[in-house]
Design goal:
Layout lengths: L2 H11 L5 H12 L18 E8 L2 E9 H7 L8 H13 L3 E7 L5 E6 L1
Antiparallel strand pairs: 1-2, 1-4, 3-4
Length: 117
């Protein structure tokens, strides 16, 4: 991760920048590399936001929506996300296709759901 990206994420974590304010900055950093998109992928409804829903004992505790650029930068900071799931999330974020990309639940009703909108 670049120093500039890390600085932006720290400002968001400290509350000095909102996710909406950080999104264009992160997008500008990311403009140096074009997004990967297969030629067969339709150009239609591309996702613009990432929704993260977290439940504990079946009750919602987090329902967060952030701009896609911020979601791309934050994948590395999701605790408990294994390498395969992280790769799947990164791939879906790079493609920007709308819809659910990850849902993990245990028998106690704890879980995480990530949806591209």
């Amino acid at each position: 991760m670049s120093d500039a990206l890390e600085s932006i994420l720290r400002l968001v974590a400290a509350g000095r920048l909102t996710a909406e304010e950080a999104a264009p900055l992160i997008a500008a950093l990311d403009e140096r590399k074009p997004p990967a998109r297969p030629a067969t992928e339709p150009a239609g409804d591309r996702a613009r936001q990432v929704r993260v829903e977290v439940t504990e004992r079946g009750r919602p505790v987090v329902n967060l929506r952030v701009p896609l650029a911020l979601g791309q930068a934050a994948v590395s900071y999701v605790p408990g996300l294994n390498a395969d799931d992280a790769a799947r999330v990164r791939d879906a974020l790079a493609r920007g296709i709308s819809g659910p990309i990850l849902e993990v639940r245990d028998e106690d009703g704890d879980g995480v759901r990530i949806v591209l909108e």
